[in-house]
Amino acid sequence: MILSGDGALVLGEEETAVRPGHVISRPAGTGVAHLLKAGDGGLGFLAYGTREPGDMCYYPHSDKIAFRGLGVIGRIRRLDYWEGEQYP
Length: 88
Fold this sequence. Notes:
Layout: E1 2-11, E2 14-18, E3 34-45, E4 56-59, E5 64-67, E6 72-75
Antiparallel strand pairs: 1-2, 1-3, 4-5, 5-6
C-alpha cells in the first residue's frame, strides 16, 4: 500500500505510476520481477506478506537469491548445466 510520495511500480519491463492510496498485490510464483522506484520526493509504503519459512526469492537486477528458511542471501551466476560435472 502506497502511504506517501509518488513513484513507479516496475513489473518486468513495464512501469506504472503509483501514489498514496494505491494497493499493489502480487501472486507468488509469477516469474515476473517487480520493484518500486521512488519519485523525487521519496516513496512511503507498507509491505506485507505471509513470510513462509521455506520461501525463496530471486532478485534479477542484482543476481541474488534469498533462502528464507536458511537465513541466507547470496549472489549467483548463471551456469551451463554441465559446468563442473566433468571428471578427470
